[in-house]
Write a structure and sequence with these properties.
The chain has helices at residues 40-44, 166-186, 194-207, 275-281, 316-319, 326-336, 342-356, 373-391, 417-439; strands spanning 2-5, 52-53, 58-59, 97-101, 109-116, 129-133, 138-143, 154-157, 163-165, 227-235, 240-248, 252-257, 261-264, 298-306, 309-314, 361-368. With 451 residues, it is α+β, with helices and mostly antiparallel strands. A seven-stranded antiparallel β-sheet has the order 1-14-11-10-7-6-2, with helices on one face. A seven-stranded antiparallel β-sheet has the order 3-4-5-16-15-12-13.
């Protein structure tokens, strides 16, 4: 059952599940390398702090034995140039993509993240966040997309001398706030709901570097960013999981079920809510996290979702550049069936998204209740076959350059532009009408003011 709470201020009911999944041998806690510097006091302190599964992404082109390094940092210091001192070291080359995955030997939990940027060193998506607390059987996945249009002005200069935009800073600050919030949730000193997360976001944003622009306007924001994630709690005895999606803006969270496919859990904060129409129009957001205006962290609560399942959070670089909403699910499953490890799946996804997206793209994936990745793959095979038959049949040849696979050449040879456009539009409509009901099963209702 799903209880919808727009801008709700109530957390999920407290629950102490059975021991599931059992923690791996010597379950890792967070280390200084896996937590942003300002949060290390929370992560590494004594007294029974939360044990988390997770860490920074690894550059996709790094050698197998390379240490894990995050592609970006969290702003920490005042606006302006660093104090005079020794000459600055040569700027280090930052990767334009990174992937991370669990080691593959944890039964019941497999995770991966993918992060890419269009301009090296300037990507406005923060690194995806994935954490699981073994002691209370709960966790969070989340992504953060700095809003480059509303926050394009430079606000912070890093130690390397490079200036970062408000969007760049905003997404990193939101990630840090979410990280620190979940540490407190895992310690049961904060509720796992939108009100407490909002407080953390608001506090961290007020402490972040800002520069007031002389250029005003209704679209300008200080440190604007989206957030989309899912807080979950495994109910071991029932074999189900509580889900609480949390979001602001137009990034999305999903749950995938082997029998029914991909279900969206969030509704974009835009005046248009039809997923196909959103691909065609890309309307402005009506709500975004920022430092200078009121914002809402939206939510809904799903008390019991059957396992196994896969939780997904993605910025619009993944789902905003496809031809129809079903394409995103097809991308996930077509890469999964070619992968033998979590890392391979992450790297295949990274290669695919970089081939078609026009934006920075970040993705977090967490599978719950499966034995291993092979179990995820085998359980999804029937859904992959069904999706291929329903949504690839009749695909116009004009879409061949997309990453989505096979198309049919219409009788009569190549088409002119107008005919091709008409065929594409008709195919999109047919695909969407077939796909929509299942996809929107858990879509939250629209706010009253937009109905």
């Amino acid at each position: 059952m799903a209880e919808h709470e727009h801008g709700a201020r109530h957390a999920a009911p407290a629950h102490r599940p059975e021991q599931w999944p059992p923690p791996p041998p010597a379950a890792p806690g967070p280390t200084a390398a896996s937590v942003p510097a300002p949060a290390r006091a929370l992560a590494t302190g004594t007294g029974g702090g939360p044990a988390l599964a997770g860490g920074p992404p690894v550059p996709a082109n790094a050698p197998a034995n390379a240490p894990a390094t995050a592609p970006g940092g969290v702003p920490d210091g005042p606006v302006g140039s660093p104090p005079a001192g020794p000459p600055d070291p040569p700027p280090r080359a930052l990767p334009s993509q990174a992937v991370w995955s669990t080691p593959g030997n944890v039964e019941g939990l497999q995770a991966l993240t993918v992060w890419t940027e269009q301009v090296p060193g300037q990507g406005e998506d923060a690194e995806p966040f994935v954490a699981h607390h073994w002691g209370t059987h709960q966790g969070v996945i989340a992504v953060f997309d700095g809003s480059g249009g509303a926050g394009a002005s430079p606000v912070w200069q890093g130690p390397d001398g490079a200036w970062r935009t408000g969007a760049w800073v905003g997404s990193r600050v939101a990630r840090l706030a979410t990280d620190c919030w979940f540490h407190e949730v895992a310690l049961e000193t904060e509720e796992a709901g939108p009100a407490s997360l909002h407080q953390y976001l608001d506090w961290f944003l007020t402490k972040a570097p800002q520069r007031r622009s002389k250029i005003g306007g209704t679209m300008r924001r200080q440190l604007p960013t989206t957030l989309a994630g899912v807080h979950y709690r495994v109910l071991g005895r029932e074999g189900t999981v509580e889900l609480r999606p949390l979001w602001a803006g137009d990034s999305r969270a999903y749950v995938f079920a082997p029998a029914s496919g991909l279900h969206v859990l969030t509704r974009d904060h835009t005046r248009e809510s039809d997923a196909l129409e959103l691909l065609r129009t890309d309307p402005p957001m009506t709500n975004v996290i920022c430092a200078d205006r009121e914002f809402t962290v939206d939510t809904q609560f799903i008390a019991s979702f059957p396992m196994p399942c896969v939780l997904i959070a993605a910025t619009d670089g993944w789902f905003g550049y496809v031809h129809t909403p079903a394409d995103f699910e097809y991308l996930l499953l077509s890469t999964l069936r070619r992968a033998h490890t979590e890392y391979e799946w992450a790297d295949l996804l990274r290669r695919e998204v970089q081939a078609y997206t026009g934006d920075d793209a970040s993705l977090a994936v967490l599978a719950l209740g499966y034995r291993d990745l092979a179990h995820v793959r085998e359980s999804s095979e029937r859904r992959y076959t069904e999706l291929s038959e329903r949504h690839l049949k009749g695909r116009p040849r004009a879409l061949d350059r997309s990453p989505r696979g096979g198309a049919e050449e219409p009788p009569g040879g190549p088409e002119d532009g107008r005919t091709a456009d008409a065929r594409i539009r008709a195919w999109q409509e047919q695909s969407w009408q077939t796909y929509r009901a299942g996809y929107e099963t858990y879509l939250p209702p629209a706010l009253e003011e937009y109905r």
